[in-house]
Amino acid sequence: MPDSASDTSKINRPKQALYASLGMLALAGITAIGVVAYFVRNADPWTWRGLVALATIPFALVCAGLIYRAPTRENAGAALLVVAFSIVRVGFPGEWTNASWILLVLTAACAAPVVWAARTLPQ
Q: How many CB atoms lie within 10 A of CB 94?
């Protein structure tokens, strides 16, 4: 007879939560690579764009953990706020370059499962 204290039953998480947390981890990873490239390429990387990108990384990691551990619509909404905050670093449309477009597309790809989770997870 199994001991109830050693019972390690698997928790069934919705697949939206798994995909949303993976999307946030991907956002953190892509942003980290971008920050490294930005710091290597620019002589003075300590601008508001660099600081926004640096702040995005831990926020995305925290949101990934929150969505995975407590899959609720509120946590997915918080992750969407982090995604919106990360887009701020692109700047105004008049300043966009090809790199800005690539950054927007990658961010949208990472945000797609988070939007799905925000629409379908329970409150």
A: 5
Domain boundaries along the sequence of the chain:
14-120
Task: Provide the 3-class DSSP secondary structure of residue 35.
Answer: helix
- Residues 49-105 have pLDDT tens digits of 899 999 999 999 999 999 999 999 999 999 999 999 999 988 888 989 998 899 999
What 3 state SS string does 78-113 have?
Answer: HHHHHHHHHHHHHCCHHHCCHHHHHHHHHHHHHHHH
CATH architecture observed for domain 14-120: Up-down Bundle (1.20)
Tell me the pTM: 0.87
- Please answer whether residues 26 and 110 qualify as being in contact, where contact means their C-beta atoms are separated by less than 8 angstroms: yes
Q: What span, in angstroms and rounded, lies between the C-alpha atoms of 6 and 22?
A: 29
